[in-house]
Amino acid sequence: MSILEAIIIAIVEGLTEFLPVSSTGHMIITSALLGINKDEFTKLFEVCIQLGAILAVVVLYWRKFLVFDKNRLFFYFKLIIAVIPALIFGYLFSDKIDTLLESPLVVGVMLLLGGIVLLFVDNWFKDPKVHSDEQMTVFQALRIGFFQCIAMIPGVSRSAATIIGGMQQKLTRDVAAEFSFFLAVPTMAAATGYKLLKGRELLMSNMDNLKLLLVGNVVAFIVAMLAIKFFIGALKKYGFRVWGYYRIIVGIIILIAIFMGYKLEV
User: What share of the chain is helix, strand, coil (3-state, %, to 5)?
Assistant: First the structure.
């Protein structure tokens, strides 16, 4: 992986991490288009640069994130509860998830199916009852955490899965989106930490890999800062339908390319 390729993938990550379009799926396709071999470092890179993107949440929402009064402490407890399913499933199915990360075909199918779902989401949940994170219960947070596990399949957006899970639990679209952003922090921090622990020898043996990882995280952080602000505004104005059309178009293009014989497999 060159420095330019690392920057391109990091830009894709920053743009898509918080959009309901699947950042992992887009990175897999980007790597395939760049012709990067799916070696162990590429897999590690695509997971670990998500840390840069989620740090953007901490910076943008620091007033809410770094407050330690009684209400916020209870909110942090709900975050911990919500992340538990992902920690368990991620640990149990780590090898299977890594295998799926090598398949643009899976990405194309899931982008298409997920896009169809997004066309109808705004009509499914029209009567929200929870208008602030203080009103959300622990059990609602846990159920959202199970929705997040669906996103372990490449092409299923973590952002979309958790926001839809929140709306299914009667959260308003805005509250569900914000909780999704917050939930990304412990989830991706844990995923990154686990991946770094497994790949520490790979990183320590090659300083160029460390430099690429640092550059990738910085770029993903900067781009994600802009993407989060854009997404909140777009979600309020357009809902999910526009992202559904986008996913369907991209999914169809990927599947056509694969079935026509283009070498997207990596």
Answer: 80, 0, 20
How far is 250 from 30, CA to CA, in rounded Å?
Answer: 12
Dist CA 23 CA 68 (whole Å): 31
Residues 84 and 142 sit within 8 Å (Cβ to Cβ):
yes
Q: Does residue 178 carry a pLDDT above 90?
A: no
What's the Cα-to-Cα distance from 142 to each of 18, 81, 221, 224, rounded to whole Å? 20, 6, 28, 26
Global pTM exceeds 0.85: no
Please answer whether residues 160 and 28 qualify as being in contact, where contact means their C-beta atoms are separated by less than 8 angstroms.
no
Please report where in the chains the tokens 């990596």 appear, as a residue: 266
Q: Is 130 helix (H, G, I), strand (E, B) or coil?
A: strand
Question: Which has the closest alpha carbon to 72: 133, 4, 18?
Answer: 133
Would you tell me the crossing angle of helices 138-149 and 158-168 to the nearest 10 degrees? 140
pLDDT at 194 over 70: yes
Q: Is 171 helix (H, G, I), strand (E, B) or coil?
A: strand
Domain locations in the chain? Answer: 3-259
Give the SS3 label for residue 163.
helix
| Calpha distance 182→170 (Å, rounded) | 18
CB atoms within 10 A of CB 193: 12
